[in-house]
Task: structure prediction
Amino acid sequence: MAEFKKADSMLEWFDQRLGVVNFAKVMMTEYWIPKNINFLWAMGVLLTVLFTFLLVSGIFLLMYYKPDVNLAFDSVNYTIMQEVSYGWLFRHIHAVGASVVFLIIYIHMFTGIYYGSYKKGREMIWVSGMLLFVLFSAEGFSGYMLPWGQMSYWAAYVITEIFGGIPFIGDELVVWIRGNFYVSDSTLTRFFMLHVLLIPLVIIGTIVFHFYALRFPHVNNEAGEFFDFEEEAEKYLAGNKKESKVVPFWPVFLSKDFLVLGFFMVFFFYLVFFHYGFAMDAINFDKADGLKTPAHIYPEWYFLWSYEVLRGFFFEIAGISGKDLGLIAFGIANVIFFLMPWLDRSPMVKPANQRPYFKYWFWFMMVDLIVLTVYGKLPPTGANAWVGFASSLTFLTLFATLPFITKAEAKKVKEK
Amino acid sequence: MKEFKILAVIIALVGITYYGIEPYAHHVMHPEVAPADFSFKDLKNVDTSLKGNPDNGKVLVEANCIACHSIESAGYPKVMPNADAAASYGVVPPDLSGAGWIYDKNYLANFIYDPVSAMKLQHKYTPESGKQFPMPAYNWMSAQEIMDIVAYFQILAPKAKAGPEAHKNTFEAACGRCHSMKYAGFEATTPVENIKTYMGATPPDLSQYIKSRGEHYLYSFINDPQVLLPGTSMPRTGLNQKAQEEVIAYMEDIGDRKKAERETTGVWVMLYTLVFAIAALLWKRKLGDFSS
Ligand code: HEM
Result:
């Protein structure tokens, strides 16, 4: 062990033992961020903050929640909402946070797609991000079951039922997931375990990995420009702050993030206190009843687009039943975004509006996803079913044609 | 400037999506229904313009009603324990102390004349069903006599005129023979097995119905259950507007107990975050804005 001098200050004491000075440099004051970015680059920090909110409010809820079909509903709606002081606040923050985190995830994701931040060295950022999306989805779904309301029960019933469509092992798989032949106490308890232990652990690990994946390629910028970060950092440190293309993460970059965060928080707390209905579905305030099917069953809003892809195929095509087709399409919808870096065959890293073909693809995709989301909630009857079919088909077609569109774009750009 | 444009695009996309999945979807799944009718226009068996004589009403009530109903405020106690009453009639007859106060006058008169049509339960008590409503129809009385009874109930003063106490009393008088309110520690006066047999469906515990159904739905539903749940065995209870609002207020008192605390805390938290945002803005200015 190295010899230790007597420390002159507390900082030095910690620095000797933990190397905090260097650590702060590497992580904060000399972690370089491009100047040329807009508020969309603050979404990552918003997500980190929201995740922290979810974690802390979740820990408070956990102190009173009871994962038992006979107790769960009242432990949430009576004990937490009415007896525990400010229990309602933790629940509202948790429920609204879980919904808003998806809004920000979607903005974050489509920022990445718009600016092409998933390719040319940034593939692992993208893949780890998509992993986070899948993990958050699992976290959202398992959490929604816990209050044991009607929508908890029936959404769990419908979604677990989907696995029954998998060939050969389907039926056994459903029973294995539920721990019973139907959604029951064992289902609740195991989803409780997933929600409060396993998935959060994996999420934390994946967030760390996501951040790590950002270190080497660095974050993208508004122009998609590639430059030498070391060189620019030297300029900055030498005092040429104006000329340098970068700023340090702390305090300069974060000062802007805090600004975005501040205004976002005003909006967030408005939702928490005054407009939370979208995140706490009314039907879920009826206790779960396996004998009483609600008139309309729909998942939380952030699953609606993929749910609509599942429902969109409602008739047999070429001897394959609508149900199976829907299942296949649903499977594709859930993994296809992982492949963005490889489906986009154009090497261009530019904002979509500067890419001759990709811009159409991007806006088409946005419109299609909105249509899918809206129709995913409406009852799938009459014309609605056909809109669902058309928009599901569009979704798949957009992805099937992406490699060709981007290939053609690459060629066109090269010729110019 | 550019950042504001980006923000505008995001707000537009989120706004359209929100409109689709919230107000619009709600409108499709829950179409508007006819507005609540607190004059109960469909009931016309009794001429309610007649002026009633409360003294004669008292005599008629003593002769006809207190065999089944208690009227605590006038000193007529319960005839038998709830369990026995439930066994005899299927459901415990409600206490009538507040009847002149909570029921609409036209409804009450027509209910005495013919309970089944006033409650809109003709689909349940058809001749073929062999079922008989437990309270007799007083269609043999003259309109004047019925209005005398109504006048008598109207002079009985309620225990509480307003506030949470009045909300509670109205709920228990109007709904409490069938529905429990667990989060207030209130259990329906009719035991659960009896009421299920009597109604053919279990009346739900209403502790969270202010949240699961919302005020708007309750407003139409209580006024006329058949409009939103055609064929339901839940009766029309004939509350006047004030009483109905008290019942809903009670459901909110119990089901959303922390509403006031939520709304005041909310304002403070939002102000606090606004201060944070402004401080961040000043800090950013101080460090020298680095981007647009
Ligand atoms: C809740 C989970 C997530 C957290 C906490 C998180 C956090 C962050 C942070 C702090 C950054 C750097 C700053 C920024 O560009 O915003 C970032 C960048 C990035 N994230 Fe995430 N992220 C999450 C989920 C996702 C998802 C679901 C995706 C999409 C699949 C994704 C893809 C990306 C990409 C592509 C970048 C690089 C952006 C660029 O280079 O311009 N992340 N993330």
